[in-house]
Amino acid sequence: MKNPPLHRYATRPGLYFTDDGGADAVVRSETADQVWFCVLEPLDQPSAFYADAARLFNEPGLTFIDQAKKQRICTRRIPSLNLRETLFRMDGPNYGLWYVHVPQAWDGMQYGYRVNGPWDPNHGVSFNPYKLLLDPYAKGIEGKMELDPGAFAYECEIKNGKVAGSPFGPMSTVDSLGHMPVSVAIDDRDINKHMGEPSHPHVPWSKTVIYELHVKGFTANAPWLPPELRGTYAGLAHPATLSYLQDLGVTSIELLPIQAKQSELFLQERNRTNYWGYSTLGYFTPEASYATKQAQEAGAGAVRQEVIDMVRAMHEAGFEVIMDVVSASPPANQAPKARPFAGEALTISRTTDAPKTRSAACTTPPVAATRLISPTRTSPRSPWIRCAIGPNALVSTDSDSILRRRWRVLTANSRDTTRSCTRCAPICCSATSR
Length: 434
Description:
The chain is of the alpha+beta class. The chain contains nine helices and 23 strands. The protein has a seven-stranded mixed sheet with strand order 4-5-6-3-9-15-12. A four-stranded antiparallel sheet has the order 1-2-8-7, with no helix packed on it. Strand 10 (119-120) and strand 11 form a beta hairpin. It is globular and about 70 Å long. Mean pLDDT is 78; it is low at 332-434.
């Protein structure tokens, strides 16, 4: 039997800018009935899709989802949020993938997905088209979840700061838009973006000494930094900070999770946050709260650039950069009652399976260290990261058994040293070899 021709969108999920000024959106779901790619625009600006989209109105007895099912491209106005949402119906599934070409796309574009399908939480299926989902491959995220009934897939109430409702109850038809973060498109196609980058130090394992730190906590009270740089990526990249780390004699800096995070529900109900970052919301997006106020106000692209500049500065100072990647405890992994739908956006098909999918976290183990490899020193095998088990032992990273090992590092010569690795660094910064 002859195989069918390769489909144009037969690639990994994500958002890909195209040369015609648009973008290809690809997402995986083998059990959804329909998927929409949704673009958000401000109401006080002309729409890029005015000529193509059918206008949706508030009609008695019909929700915007009921109307959207009948249209290929449609748009609705949300005056309370000063937003316009344009929904593109995606084609699929084709080999489990849904896809659509958006005629216009731009750097900084806010977007998300809506997915229709069966509501049967008792059997692990909780599709709800009234909840805007994050793109698990987004390179930027803006906004944060609010403790509001609209952020949950099931009907609930917020009483005295606590969520009252059952995740196995009726499906919520409250729109989540405005109560949760949104994905942000970042155009990083510049072929010259790696020009002039420093080389990766490539410290021998026998000489490696790792210093683990929290980006925010390490410089939060640093007396050598101006107040606006304390607790930020830029503060860690400051010359005085790098000089201090050199004086310690360490060779490699391990960063506690810097991926976008979302605090667990029980913490939100108590007005607390997950300080350490072990509650990942987006594996390809840096945590915005660690950026300077100026970068946060400029948007997701500026936050990402601050991370890129930090890694470059540390490479220039002679440090390797190692990043913790946590797939064991994202919000989608919480108990059913604790899962706000913003967290379940980590996967669109069978949301509770996100940590098990290869593509969700670059095959990372529960806790892993990823060396940020400079693209200027790449070769066909360079994206693979060496994995040492004990002193001076080098093994191939092809072994899945290595990927499952939890690691603990004192120094490279420590007897009980165990390191695991991943194929690539999941933060999509220009200092990462993909």
